[in-house]
Every structure is written in C-alpha cells, then in structure tokens.
Specification:
The protein is rod-shaped. It starts with a strand and ends with a helix. It is of the alpha+beta class. The longest helix is centred in the last third of the chain and has 23 residues, at 349-371. The chain has 3 domains: 2-98, no CATH class; 112-253, no CATH class; 259-371. It has helices spanning 40-43, 49-54, 59-72, 80-89, 93-98, 117-126, 132-139, 148-156, 165-174, 179-188, 193-207, 211-226, 239-253, 259-263, 285-295, 303-307, 349-371; strands at 2-6, 9-13, 19-23, 29-30, 36-37, 272-274, 277-280, 312-318, 327-331, 336-340. The strands form 2 sheets. A 5-stranded antiparallel beta sheet has the order 1-2-3-4-5, with no helix packed on it.
Length: 372
Amino acid sequence: MKVYKEHKYFVFELDDGKIVKYDLSNGQTIGKLGKPVKNLNSQLRGHSIYSVINSFEDEKYKRFLGFIRNHFVSNHISNIGTFLNYVNTYGFFEQYFVADITNISCYLRIPLNKVPKQLIKLCQKYDVQIDNDIIRAYTAKHDDMISNEGIFSSVLSLELEEIVDRDRFLILKGLSNQYSNISVLIITHKYNPKALFKYINHIILHEALNIDEILRNLADYANMMSKISPRFDRYPRNLLTTHQIAVRNYNRLKQIFDEQAFKNRIKESLEWKHDKFVFIYPKEIQDIKDEAVMQNNCVASYIDRVINGECDILFMREKEHIDKSLITLEIRNKNVVQQKGRFNRETTPEESVVIDKYNKYLSRQNVEEVIC
C-alpha cells in the first residue's frame, strides 16, 4: 500500500490497484468503488495505524503522523478512522513538520504562521523546543528599549558547559513573567544581558532558586543598593544572603548624616603604607556607604560612631587596586578591634601579618602622643 496527501484527501493506493480516500475536511470515506462508505477499517482490512503511517511516501508527513500517534492517541485505539480524526483535530502541527521543525511541544497550540521567523531560527540553531511559553515570551509587547531577539540570543548563545539545556528552557520560559524585572536590571541598572543570564544559571545551580525568585530578589537588591552607591556588587555570590543584608541595611544606608561633622573627624595620621598595601581613611560619608555595598557588610552602621568619636573606620587595600574593597577595619583607641573582608570573611594569613604591623604603627603613635 502507498499513502499520500492530495489536497483535502488522504489517498490510499492498495496493492490490488484500488483507491480509497479519506476527506480530512469532513471525515467522509470514499471506498474502493468510488462511493462514500461508513467504515474506513472495512476498506483497509489487514492494515493498522502503524502500517498506514509507514506507508506514507513523504518522510516529513510520516514524522507528523507519528507525532500525533505518540502524543494524542491512546494505545487501546486501533481504528484507523479514529486516528485520522485526531490527525484532523491537530492538523496545525502539520505546518511545523512540513517546514522541517520537529522539536516542538505536544502542548503547543499556536500555528506556525503566528511564530516569528527569527524565533524559529534561534530555536533551530540552538535546538530549543518550541512551546507556548517561549512564543508568548518572545512576542510579548513591552514599553521599553529591550529587544526580545537580543535577550533570547543572549540566553541561547551561552555555551552548553556554562548553562545546561534544562535551565536554558526555564530561563527562556521565565522571561514572560519576569520581563519587568529584566527591564529594570538591563535598562535601569545597566546589567549586561549575557552576564546576567550566566549569573541566573549559576544561582539556579547553587542556590536552588527558580528564575522568578532570582529576578525578584536581584531587582529589589539592585533598586535598593543603587540608591546608596553605584558601586554595589551586581552579581553577589550568595544572592539570598546578600539581599537579606541589603534589606537590613537599606534604611541605615540611605540616612542623611552631617557631612561636615564627619570631615572634622578625619584622621589622616592613621593612614599607612606597607609593601603592596595601603590603609586609607574615608574622606566623606559616601566612601563608607560605597564600602558597605561593595563588602556587603554593616560598616554603614558605624558612621554615627565615627562622627561621635567612638571609633575610626579605615580601608585596607592593595596599591595596585586602590579603588577595590579588600578589608574594612574598625579602630578604637588606636588599636584594630575588627578586621573583616567581603561578607565578613576572616583575613588571610598575609593580610593578618600586615595588620599586625599596622597595629604596631598605631602603638608607636600612642607612645609619641604620651611623650608630647
């Protein structure tokens, strides 16, 4: 038997030379004698659904029929006519298979002519399954400057070793629900799309968060920190922890302090250099706020204490990277009482040795003041 599609008909050329037709538009069967008959099975006695599928000459159409059989027809159904009714019901999938697009979801309900050609090219290039969520996300209209094509290209073009396929799909599907937060991050806070999506994948893998949670927390964190300092860490290693610290410190960081009173307390005599390190006294309140957001610590809570003379805050940095936070120091009575790195990490052995030498420098200052 040979089977092919001719306009609205499935045409079955039987081995004995007789022809049977099935009208896809109304489900009517034209029998071997050229007249309508009720039962297609009686005309194709000895043939099964699988033999019908395998008898198709067109390989693309054969794949289409196999897709319908595998996804929509129960195993207990053997009636060829019933199977062809399913083919008629889900006929819009034919467009995809004829166009040689086979990586599609069985839940897809959007016809091919409604799918942007560029999205099809991207999905084919990167072997991404086309489904309703991806199409809706790509075709969504937004009142901003982000190109959907640009965002999708950024996600899809990531190297496979950097982002696994499963998470790539989750990110793409999450774009629709979280587009406003993506807009905030990329447009308002100048996040690089490719770097952003690499970061999202990292957090998915290491903090077990979904894309909605990641983007909500990251956008909220960026909104808060950007009001305090443009130097905040855009890609914190521990997103949830950093976000919690940001929430806790936000009101403290945005507080308005007496700038002149702070400047009157600056003690440049506490500054020091040794080997590749320098110890810097902040020159204005914003310097401490910058340190707080770069270090993700609570040093901003010490601004009042500096103004009131309770303590001094200094920054230990490398000479070659003087603008990059390294260690934050609290000084009381010319003695280091706290020394913390980013996320309140402990100092390294090398850093501790230098801080010990700095403490000796402070001790000598104390002696000199007593002598004077």
